[in-house]
């Protein structure tokens, strides 16, 4: 728990960028290299998602968008982001890239915890439009993107 | 006191001349330019307050040098920079004084009035023997003679009124009140004109009476005046002592006053008259003027009348007068207003009302009623609704504030609390003395005036006057009297040590204090602002803050360990509400704040927003004051005079044209429901109230029923009888006849979505009797009965599915609210079902184990609830935005709504019983400001299809020391906010977390206080007096159904209690948390109050402990939604026979839910007390008579929160527990 909490504070973007760079430097023409290539592309996508989130919450905070609409656009993204991350974690597992995998485990664990503790909802996603505007949750979500 | 008078003075003088005119002319409409207004003004002023102003000028300028100075002083005294402009401008006050000087004798006074520049002609008329009537008449005459014929009408009407009033003493007082309020308005633009000022005068008068009495000459003369204006009777018997007050004589207060402090009274009266007149004139003017004036006018009148109104007479009279005389046409608008207004007055002007009430409580009620009726008749449209609605509220108010405790009332206007507010009282007294002293220079009349003046001017005046050179006496005064408080308060909203509230900071050793609960009801603390702002401030019933002294920084707040937040009751039924119809609604250009009494006018053309500090231009149109028909005094506009106003919004404020009201009833007709028999109750209530459903001619209604299929009813015109259409495919519901029927709902709510598309805006009432077991919204039973009394984990407090939440959001998007009536004998998963109402701004009613015949008390409750539910006001398509001064921000909202944005709540419906809470955080330091303001704006479509905005503004001081933060704690508000937070915590985390958090709240705040503020190192548990009830309330909360553990509590009951905590307004919530206990077998008329011809005894509050229950007694417990009457085993047989109608204890039946209508004194007292308690709340509570040693007594005893139960601490144990935590 403590580790995940610490992770939370770190900027997710930085994590993704770090993974990106790490992968970039370790590419080689093996299955591991293939994994790295895959992860490289996917991590770029994840960075995009993270930025998207930050912008979206900023819009929400400045009263630019309706929380219902915003949640409807964000919720599908959350699950796909988590799945992508889980996917290349699995890839690293198969490629026996233990170090890389180890580095990603805390984030993966956090994602799992976050998704398990999500509010009751029928569709995928994390964000509940009725509570998203709660200052605590909004601040948390906003920080989650960059912190 | 001695404020330097200096230059301000000159400015004041300069301004004054114009003011008088302005102030005088209430009617805003007058198309005539300023000049004409002026003319009118003087005339009016003569008549009324305004005239006073006019006079003032003269007087001031010429005769009384000191006077002139005063204005200056006033200006200087203005504590807050913001106010300066106002005051100086406003300070027409002098007028009052002026008037007084003039009034050496009655005639003299009148003359003086008239005597003012314009007056002379009037005077001639006035001299007539009949002071009251003549005066009014003369006023009218003058007005008539002057340019405005319309005025005449007004006046005449007022006069008539006065005459009538004379007949009915009661009426008179009302007028007085009016006048006062009007006066205040007129005089002090800064001051809200409404009730407060008047109230103050009254209070002052009271207090001052003795002092004033000294000025015999005056009295003599004044009485005459009083009599003249109000009543002959008064004249004849000016002496009626205060006793009269108790009696039914509303007027008596005035009378009594007149006797001793007649001068003041007279002034007031005069003012009142003038006020009324002015208002009246204005109102007539309104009719004349098509556009703006109307609303504004209305505003003006309502305040006066409103305050009192329903109950209170004074207000009512004035209002009546106004409407009747002048506004036949306007009435319509008024009518709308009145309804709203009634409550408002009560709220805003609670103080005022109280004062009035205190002064002439009884009279008001009795007399007022009659008068009210008259008014109603006159008013026509507005009357019925207004009065009816208004009366209950005001009554309660009067009763509460005015009735029992006259002194307190008078002193502490709105929120007299246990520790009578030091400030208010002091003020009156000091003023009186001042007046007396002052009187010397000016003669008798002066003193009289002064009181009024003080009242009106309040803080500033007091400050100024002392300063005034002429009055050496003044200096003495402050010393002698609590004047210090005044000064300090007047000098700075925040004044600190000068006279902080020693009472609220007095350390209390909780472990040694046996009776923390005061015997009288607890009032909200009054923010430590200067008197002007106090009068202007929003009523605590509509708007309260947990800390009436806002800490400067978040760090300070954290140190105090107290919750910071607001409690709102924005759509409360008001007896008085200024409604403004204006082409422009003036708002800040950057933050969109509505202009309010706490903005500052930099000059005539610019105003500075009090929330974002932007400097805005004053629109040209705003320069003209329809109320006074003057130009160039934007600070006297009603928007700037009232902290609660309502605007009629233009089409800019609507996304689409106002929609028709639509009511859809969705009824469960399953076997279970038929068995319970609620349908008959519902149908009866509906039939009775069908005509009273709010709405215009476009109102639509529809019905759906469901069991395992859905039944639609085609009610289309032309059908000989309703057609029932059954749709059995509940997974894909369609509307069989889209046109002819209204709609539906069902356990499977897919249907509703379809229906909602057909619904423009409206309300869906869902009656459900069991767990939904079919279709999309089906739910499983989640309750494990074995865990009901578990002390550990309480699960399933949250929804099981988001189906109902989504449904609610869809409804909300369609501007439709869903109200849920759950009548279930088994577990129905309210936690899930409630979501449909929570997020669509609906409301939830729950009747556990409802059965028509087996449980008649529930049936009765349903019937009463339905009546209220069907007929109460409703606002559609509402949004509420809450703004606050830069540096503060909204953190979390509590209530039933959907949060659209950081400060915007979307409410499909708003009803008068909905309360909200907001947590605040301090984001930036508030060091550069001494005041913070909060503004809620509720934009809604009325049931009549009008788009309206109701704006409440609350102003609070900022403090920098911890001690002051503690001094300003509003413990009731804090506890309600904590309860809301605890509900959130229990749902998001766990119940035990929430309970721990509650205990920690007490531990943290008391230990923070002990370490930071208290110098005493006692062994006991030390709390400031302001927080002494905190541990008790928290303990009560822990034993509340929502949070208790260890006692068997059904999950639905628990969830329902949580829903109520979230959505109830503070007053009702407090009764739920901490019921009131009274002993009723020895009711006496001592301290009784009079409400509409009834004498309501006021027994003292008892603490909630079995040690207070004696076997010889009978006790009434008021739990908000339930009353219990507990009869002791050896209760006096006389009581049982007289009140319950049974010969002895043994013969009382086990289930008894009513008090028989017996013709005995004790029965009458008991019933009137119970009825009075009932009238004070919207939902009629059910009464249970509980015999000692009957099985039902557990219900009763569970509310005795100070006692120990198997699972919970007693109060003393709780204190020890807290103390142990603190010591750790």
Automatic annotation (TrEMBL), chain A:
Matching entries from InterPro entries are given as:
Cornichon
Q: Where in the cell is the protein located?
A: Membrane
For whether the record's keyword set contains Transmembrane, the answer is yes
Task: State the family it belongs to.
Answer: Belongs to the cornichon family.
**Coiled-coil positions:** none
Keywords from UniProt, A to Z, are:
Membrane, Transmembrane, Transmembrane helix
Species of the source:
Cavia porcellus
Q: Which GO terms describe its cellular component?
A: membrane
Instruction: Give the protein name, as stated in the record.
Output: Cornichon family AMPA receptor auxiliary protein 1
What's the protein's topology in the membrane?
Multi-pass membrane protein
Q: State the source organism's domain of life.
A: Eukaryota
Question: Where is this chain primarily localised?
Answer: membrane
Automatic annotation (TrEMBL), chain B:
Q: Where is the composition biased (Pro residues)?
A: 417-431
Q: Where is the composition biased (Acidic residues)?
A: 368-380
Q: Tell me the ranges covered by the Sec23/Sec24 beta-sandwich domain, including all copies.
A: 875-959
The cellular location(s) given in this protein's UniProt record come to: Cytoplasm, Cytosol; Cytoplasmic vesicle, COPII-coated vesicle membrane; Endoplasmic reticulum membrane
Q: Which domain of life is it from?
A: Eukaryota
GO cellular component entries: COPII vesicle coat; cytosol; endoplasmic reticulum exit site; endoplasmic reticulum membrane
Gelsolin-like domain location: 1097-1169
Gene Ontology terms: biological process:
aorta morphogenesis; auditory receptor cell stereocilium organization; cochlear nucleus development; COPII-coated vesicle cargo loading; coronary artery morphogenesis; intracellular protein transport; lung lobe morphogenesis; neural tube closure
Q: Name one Pfam family in it.
A: Gelsolin
Q: Which UniProt keywords apply?
A: Cytoplasmic vesicle, Protein transport, Transport
- Sec23/Sec24 trunk domain ranges (all copies): 658-760, 761-870
Protein name (record): SEC24 homolog B, COPII coat complex component
């Amino acid at each position: 728990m403590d580790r995940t909490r610490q992770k939370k504070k770190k900027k997710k973007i930085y994590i993704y960028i770090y993974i990106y760079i790490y992968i970039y430097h370790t590419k080689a023409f093996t299955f591991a290299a293939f994994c790295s290539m895959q992860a490289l592309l996917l991590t770029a996508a994840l960075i995009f998602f993270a930025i998207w989130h930050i912008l979206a919450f900023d819009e929400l905070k400045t009263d630019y968008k309706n929380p219902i609409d915003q949640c409807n656009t964000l919720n599908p993204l959350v699950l796909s982001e988590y799945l992508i991350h889980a996917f290349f974690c699995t890839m690293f597992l198969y490629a026996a890239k233990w170090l890389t995998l180890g580095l990603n485990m805390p984030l993966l664990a956090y994602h799992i915890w976050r998704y398990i503790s999500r509010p009751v909802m029928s569709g995928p996603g994390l964000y509940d439009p009725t509570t998203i505007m709660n200052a605590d949750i909004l601040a948390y979500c906003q920080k989650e993107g960059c912190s | 006191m001695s404020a330097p008078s200096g230059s301000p003075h000159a400015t004041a003088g300069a301004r004054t001349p114009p003011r008088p005119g302005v102030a005088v002319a209430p009617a805003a409409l007058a198309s005539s330019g300023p000049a004409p207004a002026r003319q009118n003004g003087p005339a009016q002023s003569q008549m009324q307050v305004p005239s006073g102003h006019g006079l003032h000028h003269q007087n001031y300028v010429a005769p009384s040098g000191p006077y002139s100075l005063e204005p200056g002083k006033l200006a200087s005294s203005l504590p807050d920079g913001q106010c300066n402009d106002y005051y100086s401008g406003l300070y027409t006050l002098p007028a009052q004084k002026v008037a007084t000087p003039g009034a050496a004798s009655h005639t003299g006074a009148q003359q003086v009035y008239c005597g003012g520049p314009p007056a002379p002609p009037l005077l001639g008329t006035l001299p007539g023997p009949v002071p009251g009537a003549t005066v009014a008449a003369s006023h009218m005459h003058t007005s008539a003679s002057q340019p405005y014929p319309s005025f005449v009408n007004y006046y005449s009407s007022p006069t008539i009124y006065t005459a009538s009033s004379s007949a009915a003493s009661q009426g008179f007082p009302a007028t007085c009140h009016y006048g006062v309020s009007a006066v205040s308005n007129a005089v002090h633009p800064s001051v809200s004109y409404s009730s407060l000022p008047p109230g103050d005068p009254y209070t002052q008068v009271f207090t001052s009476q003795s002092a004033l009495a000294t000025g015999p000459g005056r009295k003599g003369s004044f009485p005459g005046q009083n009599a003249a204006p109000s009543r002959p009777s008064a004249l004849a018997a000016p002496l009626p002592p205060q006793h009269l007050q108790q009696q039914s004589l509303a007027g008596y207060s005035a009378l009594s006053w007149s006797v001793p402090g007649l001068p003041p009274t007279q002034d007031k009266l005069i003012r009142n008259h003038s006020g009324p007149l002015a208002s009246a004139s204005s109102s007539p003017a309104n009719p004349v003027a098509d556009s703006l004036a109307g609303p504004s006018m209305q505003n003006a009148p309502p305040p006066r009348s409103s305050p009192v109104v329903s109950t209170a007479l004074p207000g009512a009279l004035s209002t009546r007068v106004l409407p009747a005389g002048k506004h036949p046409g306007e009435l319509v608008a008024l009518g709308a207003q009145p309804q709203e207004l009634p409550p408002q007055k009560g709220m805003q002007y609670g103080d005022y009302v109280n004062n009035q009430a205190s002064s002439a409580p009884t009279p008001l009620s009795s007399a007022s009623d009659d008068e009210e009726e008259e008014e109603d008749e006159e008013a026509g449209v507005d009357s019925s609704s207004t009065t009816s609605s208004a009366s209950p509220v005001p009554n309660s108010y009067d009763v509460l504030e005015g009735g029992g405790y006259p002194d307190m009332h008078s002193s502490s206007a709105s929120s007299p609390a246990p520790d009578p507010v030091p400030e208010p009282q002091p003020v009156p007294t000091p003023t009186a003395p001042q007046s007396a002293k002052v009187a010397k220079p000016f003669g008798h009349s002066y003193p009289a005036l002064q009181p009024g003046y003080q009242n009106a001017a309040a803080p500033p005046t007091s400050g100024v006057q002392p300063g005034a050179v002429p009055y050496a006496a003044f200096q003495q005064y402050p010393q002698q009297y609590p004047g210090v408080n005044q000064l300090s308060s007047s000098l700075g909203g925040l004044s600190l040590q000068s006279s902080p509230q020693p009472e609220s900071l007095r350390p209390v050793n909780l472990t040694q204090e046996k009776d923390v609960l005061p015997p009288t009801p607890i009032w909200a603390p009054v923010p430590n602002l200067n008197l002007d702002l106090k009068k202007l401030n929003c009523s605590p019933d509509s708007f309260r803050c947990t800390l009436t002294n806002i800490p400067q920084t978040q760090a300070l707040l954290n140190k105090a360990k107290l919750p910071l937040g607001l409690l709102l009751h924005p759509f409360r039924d008001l007896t008085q509400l200024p409604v403004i119809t204006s082409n422009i609604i003036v708002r800040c250009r950057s933050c969109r704040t509505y202009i309010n009494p706490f903005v500052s006018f930099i000059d005539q053309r610019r105003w500075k927003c009090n929330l974002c500090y932007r400097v805005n231009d004053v629109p040209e149109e705003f320069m003209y004051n329809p109320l006074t028909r003057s130009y160039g005094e934007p600070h006297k506009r009603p928007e700037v005079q009232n902290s609660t106003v309502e605007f009629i919004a233009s089409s800019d404020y609507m996304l689409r044209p106002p929609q028709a009201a639509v009511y859809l009833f969705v009824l469960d007709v399953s076997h279970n429901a038929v068995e319970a028999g609620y349908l008959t109750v519902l149908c009866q209530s509906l039939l009775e109230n069908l005509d009273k459903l709010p709405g215009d001619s476009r109102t639509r209604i529809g019905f759906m029923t469901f069991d395992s299929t859905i039944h639609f009813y085609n009610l289309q015109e032309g059908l000989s009888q309703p057609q029932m259409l059954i749709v059995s495919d509940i997974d894909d519901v369609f509307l069989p006849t889209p046109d002819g029927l209204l709609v539906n709902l069902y356990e499977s709510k897919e249907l509703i979505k379809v229906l909602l598309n057909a619904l423009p805006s409206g309300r869906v009432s869902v009656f459900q009797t069991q767990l939904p077991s079919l279709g999309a919204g089906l739910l499983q039973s989640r309750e494990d009965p074995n865990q009901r009394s578990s002390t550990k984990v309480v699960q399933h407090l949250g929804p099981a599915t988001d189906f109902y939440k989504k449904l609610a959001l869809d409804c909300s998007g369609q501007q439709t609210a869903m109200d849920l009536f759950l009548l279930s004998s088994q577990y129905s998963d309210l936690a899930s079902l409630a979501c449909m109402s929570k997020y669509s701004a609906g409301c939830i009613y729950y009747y556990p184990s409802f059965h028509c015949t087996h449980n008649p008390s529930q049936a009765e409750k349903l019937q009463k609830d339905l009546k209220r539910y069907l007929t109460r006001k409703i606002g559609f398509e509402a949004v509420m935005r809450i703004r606050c001064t830069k540096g503060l921000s909204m953190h979390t909202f509590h209530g039933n709504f959907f949060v659209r944005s950081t400060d915007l709540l979307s409410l499909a419906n708003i009803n008068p019983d909905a309360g909200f809470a907001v947590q605040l955080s301090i984001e930036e330091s508030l060091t550069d400001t001494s005041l913070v303001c909060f503004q809620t704006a509720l934009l809604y479509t009325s049931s009549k299809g009008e788009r309206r905005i109701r704006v409440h503004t609350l102003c609070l001081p900022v403090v920098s020391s911890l001690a002051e933060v503690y001094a300003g704690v509003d413990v009731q508000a804090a506890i309600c906010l904590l309860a809301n937070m605890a509900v959130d915590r229990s749902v998001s985390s766990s119940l035990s977390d929430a309970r721990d958090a509650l205990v920690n709240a007490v531990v943290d705040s008391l230990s923070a206080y002990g370490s930071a503020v208290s110098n005493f190192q006692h062994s006991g548990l030390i709390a400031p007096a302001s927080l002494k009830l905190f541990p008790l309330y928290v303990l009560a909360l822990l034993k509340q159904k929502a949070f208790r553990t260890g006692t068997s509590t059904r999950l639905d009951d628990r969830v329902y209690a949580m829903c109520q905590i979230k959505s109830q307004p503070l007053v009702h919530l407090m009764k739920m948390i901490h019921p009131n206990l009274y002993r009723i077998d020895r009711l006496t008329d001592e301290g009784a109050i009079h409400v509409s011809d009834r004498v309501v005894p006021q027994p003292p509050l008892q603490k909630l402990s079995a040690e207070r229950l004696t076997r010889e007694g009978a006790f009434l417990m008021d739990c908000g939604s339930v009353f219990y009457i507990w009869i002791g085993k050896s209760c006096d047989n006389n009581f049982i026979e007289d009140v319950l109608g049974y010969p002895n204890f043994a013969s009382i039946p086990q289930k008894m839910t009513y008090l028989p209508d017996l013709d005995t004194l004790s029965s009458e007292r008991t019933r009137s007390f119970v009825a009075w308690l009932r009238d004070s709340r919207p939902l009629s509570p059910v009464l249970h008579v509980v015999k000692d040693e009957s099985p039902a007594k557990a219900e009763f005893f569970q509310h005795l929160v100070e006692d120990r139960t198997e699972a919970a601490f007693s109060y003393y144990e709780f204190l020890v527990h807290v103390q142990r935590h603190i010591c750790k």
